[in-house]
Amino acid sequence: MIYRENGQFKTSYRSDQQVFPIRQDRIAIGLLLLLSFVAVPLLADEYLLRAIMIPFLILALAALGLNVLVGYCGQISLGTGAFMAVGAYAAYNLFVRIEGMPLLAAVILGGVCATAVGVVFGIPSLRIKGLYLAVATLAAQFFVDWAFLRITWFTNDSASGSVSVGGLNVFGVPIVTPVQKYLFCLVFVALFAMVVKNLVRGHLGREWMAIRDMDVAAAVIGIRPVYAKLTAFAVSSFIVGVAGALWAFIYLGSWEPAAFNINRSFDLLFMVIIGGLGSVMGSFFGAAFIVLLPIVLDQLLPALGNAVGIPIDTATVSHIVFMIFGALIVFFLIVEPHGIARLWSTAKEKLRLWPFPH
Amino acid sequence: VGPFLETLLGGLMAGMLYSLIALGFVLIFKASGVFNFAQGAMVLFAALAMARFSEWFPRLLGFDSKLLANLLAFLAAMAVMIAVAWVIEKLVLGRLVNQEGITLLMATLGISYFLDGFGQTVFGSDIYSIDLGLPKDPIFMLENLFEGGILVNQEELYAAAIAAALVALLSLFFQKTKTGRALRAVADDHQAAQSIGIPLSRIWVIVWSVAGFVALVAGMIWGSKLGVQFSLSLVALKALPVVILGGLTSVPGAIIGGLIIGVGEKLSEVYIGPFLGGGIEIWFAYVLALAFLLVRPQGLFGEKIIDRV
User: Fold this and answer.
1) Which of B113, B287, B293, B307 to probe by mutation at the A interface, max A CB count within 10 Å?
2) Per-position DSSP letters for B167-217, written without gaps between them
């Protein structure tokens, strides 16, 4: 009853083709932005921001990037961690080696470097596809892991292999407190979400989706697979690279290559699957799910164990988290292959009729 | 020549072990079109079961013979793997029939997480050992051919022999038995196989059990070499380039691919590694396989991929 679009007549092409054609959606997005930009920084305490909101935002950004590649273009990648690492280390080197490099520029240029690497590793996708490609992207993962571990130039010859950054500021405003960090990430996330949302409904996004649905047919109707696939790799790895730079600079502060290992890649892939392939919203749902689940289980399982009289130590908890992760992946694939995003849109459909049956 | 031959032989034997894991991938892919990412987790799971059973049985039943303990543990672990195969078929694959390859791949990723977690919850997550009683001392070979001979690790020699025997056994099973023929029929064409009365779900259980058996043997050998621990699950990641190099659908491909990767890895580590800072084993196999795929997208022996609209 509340969520219903009748009576909202479109009188111009412009209004017909806007991102959110339904007024209630526009209001909801406005409220969401207000909530995230104003209410959360005011109300949330330091722990919530540092341990949940910041990782959630950055991983959502990475998942968004991966979703462009996997969800929209259908090119499965197991090397996302590598592209995050490239973004992080490129930004680090630019930031440390060039005097007076602004943080913003370093992060963006980190993304640009990740784009270059992403396109290079995307080239095989022109010849190989599907499962073979999935394995081929692992080459990126292992190569990049190795490069940042062994080639000491990348880590500025630091003895332990771990690097750190400090003194972050944007236009003179320091980025130190969790609230500042949160807002800094949020700006990137909101911006990129908007960009992707618009990209996927333009000609580029349609080309990606045509390639995803059937690449031979897409080529037949005049879509250049080379162009479509490589742009998907480029856009995806740019966003992922920026997310990697943010993850390193803002969330970790000091890090080593293990922060971007293959488990990170798998985690991101799970976010995209659970959240919803080919859905901007889904990336956020998936990231929230994967970030929150271990935290919730960490709290819940020992309490549950105590309640039944079986003490559960932290190692066991982490194994059980693994189990639940795995089981949930399978569960989602069987029950709702389109992820939480599909549940969300089903709920919206229901909401349109509510409280009437038809 | 000595060091070169030594490296070559070492590579061949390591390659044999890769083939063993790669074989598990190929078996399942051939029979059900599933790219089984969980093979590594199955290796870990099987090895954990075997290691713990061989520890528990003598204590529970009160006997002392190592051989008997290993034998019983092997059988019990095999039973566990068959149960796992059955559960996977019933709960996962049976419900994902006719889904795309990518979906199935992700499902096996889920299975692999589950098995990793489950195995370590049930069997513990310390480092366990499997003692097969293989001699560990290195021996010299071919001393009469050239000076000094070459140093060969005896354990690896046995492991390679076991792997070779297993491969032979599996080929026999596939070529000569009725079940093997049914498996090949399913691999060729699901629908045709079903229409002549081959029960698909039972075949899948069998195939996953066979893959479980291969995983068990691989886990045993790798486990006695490296100790049974979580990293065993990652050994499978090194077998992935083997599979794509050899072709996803080819058993000989898995073996020859394994040998190529094993040799390439060892030779590159010795002859190229020092220039690049060492440790290149980890990605060399992948890059080799990737370069290869660019020339032959279906791998060495894989079936040619034909695109149709």
Assistant:
1) B113
2) HHHHHHHHHHSHHHHHHHHHHH-HHHHHHTT--HHHHHHHHHHHHHHHHHH
